[in-house]
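Researcher: First entry.
Model:
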Amino acid sequence: MKLKIVFCLCIFLKLLDVLTTYFLVYKFGPEGEMNPVVKYTIEQLGLTAAMIFNYFASIALCYWVFKRKIFYALFIIFVGFLAVVINNFYAIAQMMI
C-alpha cells in the first residue's frame, strides 16, 4: 500500500515539476531552467516537447522501480521530485518580486 501511495505522489510531483518548469522557462527564458540535461533537451526539442519527454521519461523510471517493489528507491525519487518542486516554487516567487 505504501508503495502505491509513493508512486502516485511521484506522478503528482513530477506533473508539478513539469508545469512549474514550463512556466519558468516560458516566462523568464532558458535561465529559468538550472538542470543542464533538461536545458539541452529544451534547446533540441523545444519547450513543450521537452517537458512532455521529461514527464514520461521520469514516470517510466518510477514505474520501473514500482514494478520491482523497491520502496526505498522510489522514496528517494519522491524526495528528489519534492525538492525540485519546492525549488521551482521558490524560483517563481523570487522572479515575481
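Researcher: Second entry.
Model:
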Amino acid sequence: MKGFNTSTDYSKLWDFIHNGFRVPAWILYKKYEEPIFDIVEVKMPKYGDYPSIGVRGHGYETMDNNKEDFIENCKSLELLYVIPQAHA
C-alpha cells in the first residue's frame, strides 16, 4: 500500500501481536467479481486463545493457536500489514 511501510513477514507479525501490538492490515477480499482490499486489525484478544484478524464483527481468523496455522491463514488471506513504527 502506497505511503505505508508494510510487510508479509507473518512470523514477525505473530511476534508483534504476542507482544501486545494491535496491527492494522489489509486482506484481499474476494467476495466480489473484482477482489478488493479490506482493512482489518490483527491482535491477540485480552481473553482469547487464538489470534484475531477482523473488523466490524467480521473475523477472518482460524481457531488454531499455533504459529504455523496463523502463517498459513495470513498467506491465504494475502494479508499485508503495517509494520509498527518502532520496528519499521
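Model: Note on the second entry: The chain has two helices and six strands.
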